[in-house]
Amino acid sequence: MGVPPLPYRARPPQVLLGVGAVLVISAAAAVVGAYGGIAARFPLLLLAVAAAGCSLLASLQALRSTEETLAACAAGLALSAGALGGSSPLPLALIAAACLVLHGLAPSTAVWPLASWTALQWAVLRTVHAVPGSMHPTLFLGVSLVGLAIALWGRRLVARIALVTTAPWWVAGVLGGTATAWTGPGHARHLAALLVVVAAAGLLPARLRADLDRLLGPPVAVPLLAGVVAGIGISGSLAALGAPGITAAGYVGVLVATTLPPQLSGWQRGLFGPIAVAAGSTMALAALVELSARRGWAALSLLFLLTAVPAVLIAWRQPGERPTAVPWSVGCLAAAVVFTVPLGWLDPLQAAVALTVLYGAGLLMSATLAPPARLPTLVVSAAAAVAALGLVAATASRGEVALLLGQQGVLTVEWAIWTAAPIAVRPPSAAWWIGAAQLTVATWIAVSLGEVDVLEEYTLPLAAGLLLAQGPRLGDGPSWPAWAPGLLVAAVPSAVMAVVLPGSTRPLAVLAVCAVAMIAAGATGVRAPLVIGAVTAVAVAVGLAVAALLWPVAGALVIGAALLAVGARGEQFQVASFGARLADLS
């Protein structure tokens, strides 16, 4: 039975070359560890030169495995010799330069650029302790740019190794450069910001190389990272100019994020669009945070006001961008109004009125949009309305709160009318309920300011709100779901109080209202008010009869006689709705 073949692709010569390289480099490492000193450097360098020469000869003869193996031996021996140079970076720098020259002589050898890159990094590490701390970010970013250049121009294996080994230098340089851009002295901040932007831009060419895609993550990852890093660096640099610089940075960020992407197309939009959005958004957010920390309310108000200008222009001139531009405009203008309050430019009531106007404007503009695109504008407009109520509630009287809330309720109901569904039997939109709730609460607040204290002051506004919330269904929909909740809230508490409490005013008023409701409902053919009015009138009359109160009973007799007369007359003249059966009414 034969032995199955091994699944390895390596050939025996390659195995021998690999083992030989490991032995040579191990021996060199042993020499360094055992003897050290400058005396051991020269034999290692001589062996490295010999191995490099043999690698060059192998490259001329197209012996790829021998070429790479001998180059690896030469690089290992040279780096071992460089390790004997103490703390001086000069030997390693010379080795990096020599490997770079060898790469020019033998471009097909992958080891030479990798060895040069390794020696350069090692030399920089030896240099760090001798460089002032403020220069470390510059040094790290310089190394990372070299590594990115190698990743961009090197062959596939070299590019991937260079990119992976560049990442720590890039991260350390960006973090240090960002810190210097925000906290460094004088012109160092601007230089650090420039280097951070250059480092961010250095990532983009690598993104264009297809064989590095797997190492760089999703296509949008590198543009977003570059944009965020550049935005933070620029914001830090401009923050050195104080509030004007921060405000300018925020405004430029908004312009970049909102106006640049729509101008791009094709691959440019896919690459530079995310950069613009990320950088601009980062600058705007950094400006907001920094100005808030400094309590720069005037700068914040100005920033939001300036930010709203391009959004308003876009909404006006580009109808296709309105679903995004309109909520942005309303939100920025509302924020600008809010920040005028701590400045004293507007008092809370004036600011609340301005926010309510923005609420109405937002509702009006949303009504011009397609229904699926209305939600962002409605959310931002609602936030402006809530902010207005918060300002007034904290500083003004209840009467002003009621007036403002009532105005907002009227605007909400008007918007519900503008956008009413063509088929009225559909369930009413949330706008009807919100507007009814606003008006109901506003009425309650206003009522609480007076001295009269009767139950109907609260039940009747609630009943009116429940009826208003049904919207178009009051006229065209089924009467029971549309009319019954509001009428029951209005009728039941008053009917109970009319029987339980002494006095003749409430019973007469309840019976009179029931009579009017029944007559009107019968004339218009609406079942729910007719039935509820009849049941309420009968219940009150029976209750009064049991209580034996003279004047209410007399009033019941008079109203009952009037109803009998109307009913008889309706039957005599055959009014269309009076002749219909209750089951046929809506």
Beta-strand percentage range: under 5%
Number of helices in the DSSP assignment:
25
The percent of residues in helical segments reads: over 70%
> Would you report the number of β strands?
0
Q: Mean of the pLDDT scores?
A: 79
Low-confidence stretches: 13-18
Structural class: mainly alpha
Terminal Cα span: 95 Å
Structural shape:
elongated
Helix and strand run: HHHHHHHHHHHHHHHHHHHHHHHHH
Summarize the structure in words.
The chain is mainly α and 586 residues long. Among the domains are: 13-130, no CATH class; 141-294, no CATH class; 494-586. The protein has helices spanning 12-34, 41-60, 64-83, 90-105, 111-127, 136-153, 156-183, 187-207, 213-216, 221-239, 243-263, 266-293, 297-317, 322-343, 348-367, 375-395, 398-418, 430-448, 456-469, 473-476, 479-500, 505-524, 527-547, 550-573, 576-579. The longest helix has 28 residues, at 156-183.
Chain-wise SSE layout:
Elements: H1 12-34, H2 41-60, H3 64-83, H4 90-105, H5 111-127, H6 136-153, H7 156-183, H8 187-207, H9 213-216, H10 221-239, H11 243-263, H12 266-293, H13 297-317, H14 322-343, H15 348-367, H16 375-395, H17 398-418, H18 430-448, H19 456-469, H20 473-476, H21 479-500, H22 505-524, H23 527-547, H24 550-573, H25 576-579
Task: Produce a short descriptive summary.
The chain is mainly alpha-helical. Helices cover 80% and strands 0% of the residues.
Quickly list its features.
586 residues; mainly alpha; 80% helix; elongated
